[in-house]
Design goal:
- With about 300 residues, the protein is mainly alpha-helical.
- It has a single domain, classed as Orthogonal Bundle (Catalytic domain of cyclic nucleotide phosphodiesterase 4b2b), CATH 1.10.1300.10.
- Helix 4 crosses helix 7, helix 7 packs antiparallel against helix 9 and helix 9 packs antiparallel against helix 10.
- The C terminus is likely disordered.
């Protein structure tokens, strides 16, 4: 069972991630994790040159911290399982920066006063990669490191062609898949995930209005209730096949003990699905969940 961490409190997540980092690597850099958290924190509160504080209500700093905590735990589990290729310290560090910056594409420039950052939903992955390049380039990161971080961020795109991402190594690919797995599981396993689905719908609706693309994912839902009804199908038809297939089942490294022990994240996702079905059954046809031998639920990135 994982230690309880309040993802609403950045310092708690930072402390847990730092502890994991130092457990994994004897040559861990003192202050690296705290510096990385400080950097993303200043971006989300509007202290980075030319950008406002985040105003997207679902894709806020806590959303990022949920994924970050899951990411560190997943890579720690993989490290403890002693599988190949062995995760090196630098790749963990680049992956941590990638997940911390993976949703900076929702940030608006200082002069952008129309709507919220949610309007960039359909292009936020590309914007996040560009933002990370700008920010980390100013911090002196070499181009090769920035390109690796951008490749990892690109893994979070809903319709991304993973085969087209120009990874520089197999390990870079694995960390990118771990990032995307954690981005999905971190939010969908959250205790308040269901409560936040109406906020996610509002972000999708704003994105649809802004893009004018009626065929986009942002236009798939007629209401918050419609999104909630369709969430189990989204997991069963998209998320579960993705994390179990293309992302190589890396979620298994969250099991305690590995590989057949309790998987806290999947259990919490299942619990959210059961609650969601109980809430929506009176609004339409009963939602059926996958059989016990298959995992099920979720949404978003």
């Amino acid at each position: 069972m994982f230690q309880q961490v309040d993802t609403r409190v950045p310092h708690e997540v930072e402390r847990e991630v730092s502890a994991i980092y130092h457990q994994m690597f004897a040559d861990a850099q003192p202050g690296f994790v705290s510096t990385a958290f400080d950097w993303v924190g200043e971006c989300f509160v509007g202290q980075f040159d030319g950008f406002q504080a985040i105003d997207a209500r679902y894709h806020d700093l806590e959303h990022t911290l949920q994924g970050t905590l899951c990411f560190a735990r997943l890579l720690h589990g993989r490290h403890e399982a002693r599988v190949e290729p062995v995760l090196i310290r630098k790749m963990f560090e680049l992956g941590l920066l990638a997940i911390l910056f993976h949703d900076t594409g929702y940030l608006k420039k200082r002069e952008d006063n129309g709507g919220t950052g949610a309007k960039y939903t359909l292009v936020h992955v590309a914007r996040s990669a560009a933002f990370a390049s700008d920010y980390l380039g100013r911090k002196g990161f070499p181009e090769t490191d920035i390109l690796a971080i951008q490749n990892m961020i690109r893994c979070t795109g809903v319709n991304v062609d993973l085969a087209a991402i120009p990874f520089h190594s197999e390990l870079e690919r694995i960390v990118g898949y771990a990032l995307s797995t954690s981005d999905l599981l971190g939010q969908m396993a959250a205790r308040d995930y269901i409560d936040k689905l109406p906020i996610l719908y509002q972000e999708f609706a704003e994105a649809a209005r802004y893009s004018g693309d009626r065929s986009s994912r942002a236009s798939m839902f007629s209401s918050a209730e419609d999104l909630m009804r369709k969430t189990p199908g989204f997991w069963e038809k998209y998320v579960w096949p993705r994390i179990n297939g293309e992302f190589r089942g890396l979620y298994k490294f969250l099991a305690h003990p590995y590989p057949e022990g309790t998987n806290h994240y999947l259990d919490r996702v299942r619990e959210n699905l059961r609650r969601l079905e109980g809430m929506t059954v009176s609004a339409g046809p009963t939602l059926t969940s996958p059989a016990d031998g298959r995992e099920g639920v979720g949404r978003g990135n």
